[in-house]
Each structure stands twice: as structure tokens, then as C-alpha cells.
Amino acid sequence: MADEQDDELLLTDVAEEGDEQEAPETPDAEEFVLELEGEEAGDEPPLVKKLRQEIRDRDRKLSEYAKPAAPIEVGPKPTLESCEYDEDKFEAALDAWKETKRASESQAEEQKKRQDAQQREFQDLQVKYQASRASLPIKQEEFDAADAAVRAALPEQVIMGLAKYVDNPAKVVAALGRYPAQLSKIADEPDMLKQIFMLRDLEKNVKTSTRTPPPPPERDTILRGSAPIAKKEGDPVGDKLLEKALKSGNMTEYNRHRKTLRAKAA
């Protein structure tokens, strides 16, 4: 149908339509950092420092979650009897117990805050990712395959960085699915911070567009743009048939007439 659209996802200045070429080389993340104006050689711009610190913090938190701190044991509340009816000893033990109880409650509260903050961030990034996915006019099967390939190739911290620091993360994921050489190049980079910058740079070269395929040509019609058909001299019948055919677009009668003339001439 003429109204059906064929959707394309292309990397800018990469390939003509229909060509199967690799995506353009992503600018080196380290070179990107060194080319920032206003920074002396060797100095990291604020954004780089911020990203690097967040990656360190995330690694530390992941390590903490992997090895959670042992919960503070409060123990039973001391009694005068457990203190051998020594009031001074009892008051000291009770004060220590209350302090331990406060520390235990504070520990539990901090752990809950960290878990809630992590959950909120995860949910916000999921909403952003799904919204960017909804804006892409590509088939769900293709996107699912690209998403699975990216998750298999890149560390979880880089996936989080992709969702957090790239404006349209789903578009980048779809591009990496269509250009696996780019995904391999990013996956081969050992520095996770550089990987995130490579993804940000790649987004600048991703371009989406749509096109409507032309309708199939109808049967017995003249192709527009073809060479003009010359009239046969001394053939008034053929001239009328040709004029009629050019108006209607149907060459059947004219072709039949020419075939009859060729048969008589033979």
C-alpha cells in the first residue's frame, strides 16, 4: 500500500539507503576529553570528574550490597537482676544498651534509604528508557534483539550510564543493534567511563527518518520518463490508436495494431 511507511534508523554520513556498510567510527572518548576547550592538558573537566566519582560510588555501593554490613546486635535489655542488683552497674549497662539500640535503628534506616533511593532511580531510568523506546518507529522484535545484545556486551554500570546520561538511550540501543561493529568497539574499551562517553558521542551521529515506498506500477501502463513513442508515417489508424493510448495509458490496442501490420509486412 502507498500509505505504509518503511522506517529507517541510520547513522549520519554513514551509508546510502540499501548499502550494508559499517557505522562510522565513534570518536575516541579520551580524545574527546582532551579536545574540550577551557581545560588545560591533563585536567579533567567537571563532568568527567562527576561521572568518574559516580562510577566509584556505584562500585562501592554494589560492593556494600554484595557484602552487607553485619546487623548490630542489640541484645536483651539489662535488668537490675542481671546486674547483680548493683544500681551503678545497671545504669551503665542500660545506657550502653540504649546507645546500641539507637545505632541498630539508625543502621536499618540508612539501609532502607539507600534501597529506596536506588529503587527510585531505577524506576525513573526505566520510565525514561521506555519513553524513548516508544518514540522509535521500529519493530518490537528488532528492538528486543538489539536490547539483548547491548545488555550482554556492556557492564551493568555502563547500561545505567546509558539510560542516565544519553538523551535518547533507546535510539542508541537500536543503532547498536543495526551496527554491531560499533557495539563491539565500545565493548572492547576497558574503561567504563570511556564507554559511556562513546555512547554519548554515538548518539550525535544517529539519525532517524521515514520514507514512503512508491506504489507498484499498474499493468499495461506507460512508464513515465521513458523515451517517447514515435508515430508511424502513413498509418492514420495507428496514429489515432497511439493518441488514444497516450491519453488512457493503455497500449493494448495500439500494440495489437502494430503486431498486425508487422505480420502483413512479413
UniProtKB/TrEMBL annotation:
**Ranges where the record places region Disordered:** 1-30, 61-86, 98-121, 206-238
Superkingdom, taxonomy of origin: Bacteria
The entry's protein name is Scaffolding protein
Tell me which species this is from: Sphingomonas panacisoli
